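Subject: 2-C-methyl-D-erythritol 4-phosphate cytidylyltransferase

B.,
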Amino acid sequence: MTAQLSAVVPVPPVAADIARYRLDGSAVLEKVVRALLESVADPAAVVVACAPAHVDIVETLLADDDLEAVQVLAGGTDWMQCLAAVVTHIARQANSARYVLVHDVRQPLTSAAVRDSVVTALGEGAEMVLPVLPVTDSVKAVDAQGAVTATLDRSTLRTAQFPRGFATARLVRIVDTGTADEIAAALATGAPITTVEGDPHAFVVESRSDTVFVDAVMSSRR
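Prediction pasted inline below.
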């Protein structure tokens, strides 16, 4: 299965600073890439796509000798443009991967167990695999004035995580829709979405202050 798998990290401009934040002495992007390398057979199967202006920065973050085979592509100015650049690159390969893992640099702590579950589901025939967690907070509906109108049934709600898995052919169709979100695009194209259990400790890093908390979580895991 690993020989048929590519892994993708879109880094649009809004995530460029996050990619450079430090966690346990390493850049966030480096941690994400190293984790993905555990799932693929060839380091060249890991591809990072970023805005053209950020290619040099990304290459510097991945400058260690054992990461030199990781590919860095000039993508676009948003998530889907970066993803589209990688999908086009993969599809043009002579022996293109049948499956793709798509990871968000903002979730550097996703466990190997979640990645393995996504890959296993792809191998069992799923076209799109989404790690999810139950919603535990109370969720309210509000009107245009902000007044609460209802309490939603959270038993049917889930939060979506990364990495997300795709059959390459399905991901090509999703990207071709031009929709800004791959889940919305999958639903619009009628793609069946398989869910697997997510990781409650896969915290999202959105600011430098978040790295302090995430570092503490990493220390507790040692």
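The CA atoms of residues 7 and 101 lie 5 Å apart.

T.
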